[in-house]
């Protein structure tokens, strides 16, 4: 059996974004084979997603946006009432309701707009993370962004 080192766990974690203990378990299960460990983590992630898919999201909020003679009403569910009481969740529901009003009943346009805003928020959070990194890592991230063909996707830097 191959000895699993902290460096191997760190490399797998950097590559996949999975938790440290999950990475260690994946490497142990695959005898240190990095590619097999990535596949193992992917399969485990799908299993977790399938388990969560059966959960009932019975809590949430109703969002309303209105203008002169038009209005949009949306329901956004969450698994717990703690999430529904969160200010960020409430702001998100307001934003979705406003976007639904602008979409004028076009569900596909609404889905595209929501996906765009989620990606924009992810990029903003990624930018904040980069601010707290050493300058060399920030330069590497910028080079990776410029070299990337998809301008909205930033791969994690080590």
Q: What is the percent of helical residues?
A: 55-70%
Mean pLDDT: 81
**Which of globular, elongated, flat, extended, rod-shaped describes the shape?**
extended
Give me the strand/helix succession. HHHEEHHHH
The total strand number stands at 2
Number of domains in the coordinates?
2
Low-confidence residue ranges: none
What is the CATH architecture assignment of the largest domain?
Answer: 2-Layer Sandwich
Radius of gyration over C-alpha positions, nearest whole angstrom: 21 Å
* Main sheet: strands, sense, barrel: 2 strands, antiparallel
* Spatial strand order of the main sheet: 1-2
Give me the number of helical elements: 7
CATH class of the largest domain: Alpha Beta
Distance between the termini: 27 Å
| Structure classification | mainly alpha
Question: What do these coordinates show?
Answer:
The protein has a two-stranded antiparallel sheet with strand order 1-2. A hairpin with a 2-residue loop joins strand 1 (59-67) and strand 2. Helices cover 63% and strands 11% of the residues. It is extended. It is mainly alpha-helical.
Give a quick rundown of the structure.
63% of the residues lie in helices and 11% in strands. It has 158 residues and is mainly alpha-helical.
Offer a few descriptive terms.
mainly alpha, 63% helix, 2 domains, Tetrahydropterin Synthase, Chain A, 158 residues, two-stranded antiparallel ribbon
Topology:
Layout lengths: L5 H11 L3 H10 L4 H20 L5 E9 L2 E9 L2 H4 L2 H17 L3 H25 L3 H13 L11
Antiparallel strand pairs: 1-2
Helix pairs in contact: 1-2, 1-3, 2-3, 5-6
